[in-house]
């Protein structure tokens, strides 16, 4: 394991503990802040996620979005995500890593993404689970046109500085139960 990989692994461990404690306290006003942040994008195609473990839950906001909504599907290690159309009533199956995904449905290409994370910093960097799926996906989407990545997290998930590497894609905005954070 490289030094950066070890640093990220330790940061991930600490961040998971902070997220678990925050999750136990409830989600507060996070949904209202996320709804407000998304209003500027109107019905633009949106990608959210179906939460696992102690991730903050965006489903209520996704269900109210006026445009198409998709959720991520992992195709395999080293590959970008695809996004399959989602509605709250559709049947789900277990995908990779236990994440629920729609049983079937068309792909959508999002212009706005609600991104799950383990930790974030005020520069807009996120610490994910370590697979690089969102970094590859954001890089590919941004190469094709304007793409906005909104990290969705508990305020307790903030850290001083996320360890980064050249392939890490920054977030454009972070939303917590305390409100929006615009990266500097």
Automatic annotation (TrEMBL):
The lineage of its organism: Bacteria, Pseudomonadati, Pseudomonadota, Alphaproteobacteria, Rhodobacterales. It comes from the Bacteria. Its EC number is 6.3.3.2. It comes from Rhodobacter maris. InterPro entries: FTHF_cligase, FTHF_cligase-like_sf, NagB/RpiA_transferase-like. Belongs to the 5-formyltetrahydrofolate cyclo-ligase family. Its cofactor is Mg(2+). One of its GO terms (molecular function) is 5-formyltetrahydrofolate cyclo-ligase activity. It holds the Pfam family 5-FTHF_cyc-lig. Substrate binds at residues 50, 55. ATP binds at residues 8-12, 126-134. The keyword tRNA-binding does not apply. It catalyses: (6S)-5-formyl-5,6,7,8-tetrahydrofolate + ATP = (6R)-5,10-methenyltetrahydrofolate + ADP + phosphate. The keyword Transferase does not apply. Keywords: ATP-binding, Ligase, Magnesium, Metal-binding, Nucleotide-binding. NCBIfam families: MTHFS_bact. This is 5-formyltetrahydrofolate cyclo-ligase. GO terms for biological process: folic acid-containing compound biosynthetic process; tetrahydrofolate interconversion.
């Amino acid at each position: 394991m490289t030094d950066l990989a070890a640093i990220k692994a330790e940061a991930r461990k600490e961040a998971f503990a902070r997220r678990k404690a925050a999750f136990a306290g409830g989600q507060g006003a996070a949904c209202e802040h996320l709804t407000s942040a998304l209003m500027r994008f109107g019905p633009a195609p949106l990608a959210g996620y179906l939460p696992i473990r102690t991730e903050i839950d965006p489903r209520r906001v996704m269900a109210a979005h006026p445009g198409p909504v998709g959720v991520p599907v992992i195709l395999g290690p080293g590959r970008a995500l695809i996004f399959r159309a989602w509605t709250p009533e559709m049947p789900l199956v277990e995908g990779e890593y236990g994440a629920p995904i729609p049983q079937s449905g068309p792909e959508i290409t999002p212009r706005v993404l609600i991104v799950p994370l383990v930790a974030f910093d005020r520069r807009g960097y996120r610490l994910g689970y370590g697979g690089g799926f969102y970094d590859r996906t954001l890089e590919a989407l941004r190469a094709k046109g304007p793409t906005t990545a909104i990290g969705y997290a508990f305020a307790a998930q903030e850290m001083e500085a996320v360890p980064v590497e050249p392939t890490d894609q920054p977030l454009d905005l972070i939303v917590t139960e305390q409100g929006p954070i615009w990266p500097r």
